[in-house]
Amino acid sequence: MQAFLVDRYGTSGNTRIGEAPVPAVGDGDVLVQVHAASVNPVDFKIRDGELRQILRFRLPLILGNDLAGVVTQVGAGVTRFRPGDAVYGRPDKSRIGAFAGFIAMREQDVARKPANTTMPEAASLPLVGLTAWQALVERARLQPGQTVLIHAGSGGVGTFAIQLAKHLGATVATTTSTANVEMVKRLGADIVVDYKKERFEDVLRNVDVVLDTLGPETVAKSFRVMKPGGTLISISGPPDPAFAREFGLGWPLEQAMRLLSWRTRRQARRRGVSYSFLFMRPDGEQLQWITALVEAGVIQPVIDQVFPFEQVQDALAYVETGRAKGKVVIRLRDDPG
Asked: What is the pLDDT of residue 335?
């Protein structure tokens, strides 16, 4: 099968489209023929070696962290899927490889594709959907009437999280640029801060929950607008000791992350709020809830561009610019649906 391969870590000249064996199907696995896969910032972070301390792969590796496709084979013990099922999912962190003709995934990491989506639309959802769900529903336990600040509302996570938070009954504030103000309003944002014209820390107050996608500087500013007892969840760091324990990274890395996040955690304590770092995990059951929301019209996929497989490099480069509105998707098969 064809696959997009990383031969060595680095920023250039280290990737190629080449041949790779179709992955073996183990007990409890489903083999999925990939129709479409989406591009996420974690892809170029893996490519560049930024995550090699916590995600250890054998090179060459196949990139790609979420997808939609059709089941072609099931392993022993699989009960929920059979060949021919249209599915989508986010593979386990140790089994990435969506930028390829086929991928083998654990049954519990897969869900049936929303019936009202195309393959590219479905492929755009798993990673950002699970990130938003695990941040807002599972960790923050966002309640009706609360105020949530979602940074970078026009991005992949942001466009999904705005819709989910609105469905949960929250007042949704978000940050974006002038060009995207109307788009995030259409998605459900109640308060839009145009960062080209004003600073969110000068505008917002009494925020219950913050979902940060931008990094430590934004985290520090976000603490200033939060209520005591509020919750801030970041997917852009700094990683904290709880994350190291959850990932089983061992005592040395746990201590390193304790030091790395010390200032941020101290700032949170001084403000009387909680801080945590989130690296989303695969969860087919949560994806089934997301499927129901998409089929009900509560969540709509937001796609900026769809690239052919031959232009994976261009798709990665576009996402790296940070200007994508919603998701960028790679199409591996031209068949509809």
From this structure: 66
72-93 tens-digit pLDDT? 999 999 999 999 999 999 999 9
Q: Which residues are CB-contacts of 126 (< 8 A; sequence separation ≥ 6)?
A: 38, 66, 67, 88, 89, 90, 287
Pairwise CA distance, residues 306 & 323, whole Å? 15
Angle CA 231–236–240, to nearest 5: 65
- Cross-sheet strand order for the sheet of 171-176: 191-194, 171-176, 147-150, 207-212, 226-234, 274-277
Q: Are 128 and 305 within 8 A, CB to CB?
A: no
Same domain, 50 and 64: yes
Residues in Cβ contact with 104 at an 8 Å cutoff, skipping those fewer than 6 apart: 23, 24, 25, 26, 29, 30, 31, 32, 95
CB 285: neighbour CB atoms within 10 A? 8
Instruction: Residue 143: give its domain's CATH number.
Output: 3.40.50.720
pTM: 0.97
